[in-house]
C-alpha cells in the first residue's frame, strides 16, 4: 500500500494515479467550461477543441448528429479517461499507465457495455433486443442452432472482454518494453564499461524511440476504445436491421 495501509480506503500507487488523473481531468474541464463565452479563449478554447474533436470525429461520425450529441458524454468520458491515464506511462516518476492493470479498463468496458444494453433494451424491450442481436434474419432454421449461441457469446460476452484486454495488454506490453530498454541502458552504462557503453547508448536511443511510438499507441488505444463504444451503441440502436 502507498498509504492508508490496513484501512478500507488504502490505495496503492496505481490507484492513487487513477484518482489524481481523474481529479485533474475533471478540474480542467470544469475550469475550461465554467463560464463559456460565445467566442472561446484560453482554457475554454482548448477544452471545447478537445470535446469538438471527439464529437465530430467519433460520436457524430458513427452515430450521426442527433445521436452523436446524445451519447457524447459517455464517449468523451471514455476517450479522455483512457488517453490521460495512458499518458502516465511516459511521465517520469510515474512510468506506468494504470490501464496496464485490468481494473480501470474493465470499468470502462462495463460502462460501454451497460450503455449498449440499456440503449437496445430501451428501444426494443429486453427480449426484443436479445432476439434482434442474436437471431440473423433469412437464415434457415437448422442453422440458427449453430449461429444463435455464437452470436450470443460474441455479442454479450466477448465484447466487454475484448475491450478490456485490448487496452490492458497494449499498455502493459508498452510498459514492459520501456522498462527493459531503460533498465538495459542503466546496466550497460553504469554497471559495465568499455564496449558495453555503446550498447547502453544504443539501448537509450531505442528507449527514446519507443517512447515516441508509445505516444502513438496511447492516442490510438483511446481512439479505438471510444470508437468501438460508439459502434456498439449504433449497433444497439439499429439492432433490428443487422
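^ C-alpha cells above, recovered residues below v
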Amino acid at each position: 500500500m502507498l498509504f492508508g495501509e490496513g484501512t478500507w480506503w488504502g490505495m496503492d500507487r496505481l490507484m492513487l494515479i487513477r484518482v489524481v488523473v481523474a481529479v485533474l481531468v475533471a478540474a480542467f474541464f470544469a475550469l475550461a467550461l465554467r463560464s463559456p463565452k460565445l467566442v472561446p479563449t484560453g482554457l475554454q478554447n482548448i477544452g471545447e477543441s478537445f470535446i469538438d474533436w471527439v464529437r465530430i470525429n467519433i460520436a457524430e461520425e458513427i452515430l450521426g448528429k442527433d445521436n452523436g450529441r446524445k451519447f457524447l458524454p459517455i464517449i468523451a468520458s471514455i476517450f479522455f479517461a483512457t488517453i490521460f491515464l495512458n499518458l502516465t506511462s511516459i511521465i517520469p516518476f510515474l512510468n506506468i499507465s494504470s490501464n496496464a492493470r485490468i481494473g480501470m479498463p474493465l470499468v470502462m468496458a462495463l460502462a460501454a457495455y451497460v450503455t449498449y444494453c440499456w440503449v437496445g433494451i430501451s428501444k426494443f424491450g429486453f427480449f426484443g433486443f436479445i432476439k434482434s442481436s442474436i437471431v440473423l434474419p433469412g437464415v434457415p432454421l437448422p442453422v440458427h442452432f449453430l449461429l444463435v449461441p455464437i452470436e450470443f457469446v460474441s455479442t454479450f460476452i466477448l465484447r466487454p472482454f475484448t475491450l478490456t484486454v485490448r487496452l490492458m495488454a497494449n499498455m502493459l506490453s508498452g510498459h514492459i518494453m520501456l522498462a527493459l530498454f531503460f533498465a538495459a541502458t542503466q546496466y550497460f552504462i553504469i554497471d559495465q564499461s568499455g564496449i558495453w557503453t555503446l550498447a547502453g547508448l544504443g539501448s537509450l536511443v531505442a528507449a527514446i524511440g519507443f517512447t515516441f511510438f508509445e505516444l502513438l499507441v496511447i492516442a490510438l488505444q483511446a481512439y479505438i476504445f471510444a470508437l468501438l463504444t460508439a459502434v456498439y451503441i449504433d449497433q444497439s440502436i439499429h439492432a433490428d436491421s443487422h
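The helical segments are 13-32, 42-70, 72-87, 103-124, 126-134, 141-191, 195-237.
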